[in-house]
Amino acid sequence: MLSIVGLCFIVLSGIFISKLAVDPLLEYIQSLQNLSKETLHELNLPISTIMTNIQMLQRSMEDEKSLKRIGRINRACEMLKERYNELDYMIKMQSRQDIEEKFSVDKLVEERVSFLSKIYPQFEFNVALEKLEITSDKKGLAKVIDNIVDNGVKYSKNSKTIDISIKNSTLYIEDYGIGMDEVELLQIFDTYYQSNSDIQGFGIGLSMVKRFCDKNSIRLSFKSQKDLGTRVELKF
User: Fold this and answer.
1) Could you tell me which of 99, 101, 169 has the C-alpha nearest to residue 135?
2) What pLDDT shows up at residue 164?
3) DSSP string for 43-101
4) Tell me: the pLDDT tens digits for 82-91?
């Protein structure tokens, strides 16, 4: 049998070896985080410069064809800005920074609809919003809204309408697409699950939505009927 001294020596040796292995890894992760922050900071200036100059060019242009071209550049730049914001959000999440703030959900919905309507110009977004202020993770909720709307668009075949409303401290997002039956509803939060394998995507959006809602005490529910559509409810 090992003596107490021998056992302590083995334990301490294990801790020392683990520290030797873990410390360089932690330093490497910290270096990556610092590099990400610095790179993100450097990206902000050229993106802002491009957007400012696009706005100046739009004011001086009258030719319709040129305006359409500059409009496409502007939309692409807005999408780059969105990716920038998402990277900033992810870095803050990994750094465990406090990202809660007080904001108006109705104004956030209006911002997201304005952005999404440029990505999906073929869709009509019907919006009816009561005022609603909360303290939460604003960027995270924006990603949740984008994911739900994106699913509604992807799974809408004949319908080109998305209804978004806020009533009684609840956000409703409703599509009129292919819908789901009871079996599919039970599986929607499974990572990588897709109800239709022919539709492009990785099937991770709704599992992320569920994790966010659970973490931020938002009651999430789905109501759906096959071939009639799906309504998503977020109760704050």
Assistant:
1) 101
2) 98
3) HHHHHHHHHHHHHHHHHH---HHHHHHHHHHHHHHHHHHHHHHHHHHHHHHHTT---EE
4) 777 777 777 6
